[in-house]
Automatic annotation (TrEMBL):
Source taxon at top rank: Bacteria
CDD domains: HTH_MerR-trunc
NCBIfam families found in the cross-reference section: excise (TIGR01764)
Protein name, UniProt field: TOBE domain-containing protein
Presence of the UniProt keyword Metal-binding in the record: no
Chloroplast is among the record's keywords: no
Residue span(s) of domain Mop: 64-129
UniProt-listed InterPro entries: HTH_17 (IPR041657), Mo/tungstate-bd_C_term_dom (IPR008995), Mop_domain (IPR004606), SinI_DNA-bd (IPR010093), Transp-assoc_OB_typ1 (IPR005116)
Listed Pfam families: HTH_17, TOBE
Key words of the record: Molybdenum
């Protein structure tokens, strides 16, 4: 069974270890103790928790899309030229860079400091084991 130390779980979730401890103490996230009394989060429990926290449409919000991979973050850089724009978003520990038309970036009002979602739809995704 794969388990994660509190700090490892926090790193995977993009939150502080204190936040994960509060979730465990509050019963939102299951944990077990090892032989030294340290808390470990079972991988299966962490995966279930992450799924339960996934983005959902807010009441009254109508957003129809087949894309399921949404990374909410803050725009950290926008480089515009005559036709194209390069937009960088920091979504937790993930840096996402998107190339789009300048017109699209302007219409969306994408500037440094704006909260945005990177939406990824792909049938070609490479999966690697962390090592």
């Amino acid at each position: 069974m794969t388990t994660f130390r509190i700090s490892e779980a926090a790193g995977l979730l993009g939150v502080s270890a204190d936040t994960v401890r509060r979730w465990v103490d509050g019963g939102r996230l299951a944990a077990v103790r090892d032989e030294h009394g340290h808390r470990l989060v079972p991988g299966v429990e962490l995966a279930a928790f992450v799924r339960s926290q996934a983005w959902r449409n807010e009441p009254g919000e109508h957003r129809a899309s087949s894309a399921r991979n949404r990374l909410r973050g803050i725009v950290t850089d926008v480089i515009r030229d005559g036709v194209m724009a390069q937009v960088e978003i920091q979504a937790g520990p993930f840096r996402v860079v998107s190339l789009m038309s300048r017109e699209a970036a302007d219409e969306l009002g994408l500037d440094v400091g704006v909260v945005a979602e990177a939406v990824v739809k792909s049938t070609n995704v490479v999966v690697e084991l962390a090592g």
